[in-house]
Amino acid sequence: MAEQDRGASGTPRWVKVFGVIALILVVLVVVMLVTGRGGHGPGRHASSSAASGDTGGYVAPSAASNQP
User: Fold this and answer.
1) Using CA atoms, how far apart are residues 34 and 68, in angstroms rounded to an integer?
2) Taking the chain, what is the end-to-end CA distance rounded to the nearest angstrom?
3) I want to staple 51 with a disulfide (CB 3.0 to 4.6 A). Which of 38, 39, 43, 64 is the partner?
4) Per-residue pLDDT for 2 more than 60?
């Protein structure tokens, strides 16, 4: 009888498992944001040369047409 009472009350196991998984995911996201490993910012979608301001020898067409 004591075994039945213990199983009927309390939080179901699946709720505890999902809670632990959610907590782990939240901690991982916070750690990534704090350490700067989140990859957010303007350099995320550009190559390393474009993020540093290097145009790779590209000359804008308006600048090329203004030369004498």
Assistant:
1) 52
2) 98
3) 43
4) no
